[in-house]
Design brief:
Blueprint (H helix, E strand, L loop, with lengths): L9 E4 L2 H5 L3 E6 L10 H15 L4 E6 L4 H13 L2 E7 L8 H8 L3 E5 L1 H4 L5 H11 L3 E3 L6 H7 L10 E6 L3 H7 L7 E6 L7 H13 L12 E3 L13 H14 L8 H14 L7 E6 L5 H14 L1
Parallel strand pairs: 2-10, 3-4, 3-6, 4-5, 7-8, 7-10, 8-9
Antiparallel strand pairs: 1-2
Helix pairs in contact: 2-3, 2-7, 3-4, 7-8, 8-9
């Protein structure tokens, strides 16, 4: 299943800020492993797809917002691996479809819309049973791939002991949990929540780690050390401002690495800010995980242009 994906490469960042902090800075380019199913999305989907295949499911059903990287990746992965896909979308249908949902439909995904109140029940047995009655035998993948299969896949993201600190953006906390379970001796992970008041994710991470370690899935005896840095959400999920937009553009011009506004731009901005504050140890080797998500930039830029024209 993994044969059509490229191995991610590690790119060094030559930064004056990092040089002054006496820190070596590198980026794990998960955004380049596949044109459509890239970043952490592939790792979170991999074992869900394998389980669905092993149990002879032919249809995947999952959840997401109108600009969801997960919806985009699941639609593409379903098409690649021979699954019918159904995307349950938060909110009302809006035509014409934005680039994310248009791509999903082009990949064969059937879109179903739920009002926000009903959508909040997506984790409940009652709503999932309703969806099974409506669509038949479907393999349900949680929003964002946030389940133990997703965590298992994310344990495969970091496979090197060369770095002291692994930095990653944090949404559902699935990726951070997987990375924490794969850390080598002497390594630590730092997650940057992209949601406002993201400290609540600490409990989510603890729950994921506890449930994973009790599941019998491949795991070390205990996770490595991790922490949350909650100061770089820029107002909340999918919120941006001119400062973040400028940083994203300047970073791409300086280093040739595009960042997505929702996740990686906030984490990269946070790391550069912390470097200037002397947050990291001297001679630290930092690995920043580029979790993909670049497809969402088109929709974000369209929304920003609409707002600026009002």
């Amino acid at each position: 299943m993994s044969s059509m994906f490229l191995l991610p490469h590690i790119q060094q960042i030559k930064s004056a800020i990092a040089h002054r902090a006496n820190v070596d800075l590198y980026v794990l380019r998960l955004d380049l492993i596949h044109p459509w199913v890239n970043g952490n999305k592939w790792f979170k989907l991999k074992y869900n797809l394998l389980e669905a295949k092993q149990k002879n499911f032919t249809t995947l059903l999952t959840f997401g917002g109108a600009y969801s990287n997960h919806i985009y990746a699941t639609a593409a992965a379903g098409n690649l691996f021979g699954f019918r896909t159904i995307g349950v979308i938060r909110g009302e249908e809006r035509l014409p479809l934005n680039p994310t949902l248009r791509f999903a439909v082009e990949q064969g995904m059937q879109l179903v819309y739920l009002n926000r109140e009903t959508y909040r029940q997506r984790h409940t047995t009652a709503l999932q049973e309703y969806l099974r009655q409506r669509f038949g035998e479907v393999f349900i993948v949680p929003e964002g791939g946030c389940n133990l299969n997703g965590v298992r896949g994310c344990t495969e993201i970091i496979d090197t002991a060369e770095f002291d600190t692994i930095c990653v953006a944090c949404g559902t906390a699935t990726t951070l949990a997987g990375i924490a379970l794969s850390l080598h001796e002497g390594q630590q992970a730092i997650a940057f929540p992209v949601l406002k008041n993201g400290a609540f994710l600490a409990q989510e991470i603890d729950n994921l780690l506890t449930n994973y370690l009790a599941s019998g899935l491949p795991a070390p005896t205990k996770p490595g050390p991790w922490e949350l840095v909650c100061d770089f959400h820029f107002g909340g999920y999918a919120k941006v401002n001119d400062e973040l937009l400028r940083f994203t553009q300047q970073f791409k011009e300086a280093h040739g690495i595009p960042l997505d506004y929702v996740y990686t731009a906030k984490m990269f901005y946070g790391v550069m800010n912390l470097l200037q504050q002397g947050f990291f140890s001297q001679s630290d080797r930092l690995l920043l995980v580029h979790t993909g998500g670049l497809q969402g930039n088109a929709g974000m830029e369209a929304r920003l242009q609409t707002v600026s024209s009002i």
